[in-house]
Structures are given as structure tokens and as C-alpha cells.
Amino acid sequence: MVPYTFIENDHVTASPSKENSFPMMLGREGGKTRLGPAAENFDATDVLPALTKKAVELINARADEAKNGKPFFLYLPLNAPHTPIMPTKEWQGKSGLNPYADL
Prior knowledge:
The chain has helices spanning 47-67, 99-102; strands spanning 7-8, 11-12, 16-20, 36-39. The chain has 103 residues and is α+β, with helices and mostly antiparallel strands. β1 (7-8) and β2 form a beta hairpin.
């Protein structure tokens, strides 16, 4: 996942200005992700919601054109099945099993 920043339209949205790493699984002792360059306010917990929000915005923006015969293709590779396992606060503990199940 390094660098820990978002890339949009071939450019980083915030320049990495520090080194950071994240727990491999939220709330569990043990491994961490690679230490690497990170944007100042980057939080791995925000990645899945941010990607989802951007996808929904694109779908909404192109919906009328799609209904009128101009389809589009959205490729959305999600980070969720991979480490770090970082469910958002609203989902933490919901499954009663583990952080992976809380995704």
C-alpha cells in the first residue's frame, strides 16, 4: 500500500511528508504494515470509505448518460480483502468475531 496517500488522475492528492505504518489487523497485537512515506493526514481506516464514495460519485455523474445509451466501465479494486484490516468505527465489533469479519 506504500506510499500511504491517495493517487488520483496519475497524481498524489497529498504529498507524503512523514514515515508511517499501520497495524496489520486493527485491535490485534503483532505485525505492522511496511514503514513508508505517508501523507500527513492519511489514515488506512479511511481508504475503503473514500474509494466507495468516489465510485458512487462517478456512477451518479454518469447515470443519465448511461440511461441514454452511453454506458461506462468502472473498475474498482478494493483494498478490503487485504491487510491492513481496518474496519471503520461504525463497523468495529459488529460481527462479534474479529476485525476481518467486521469489514
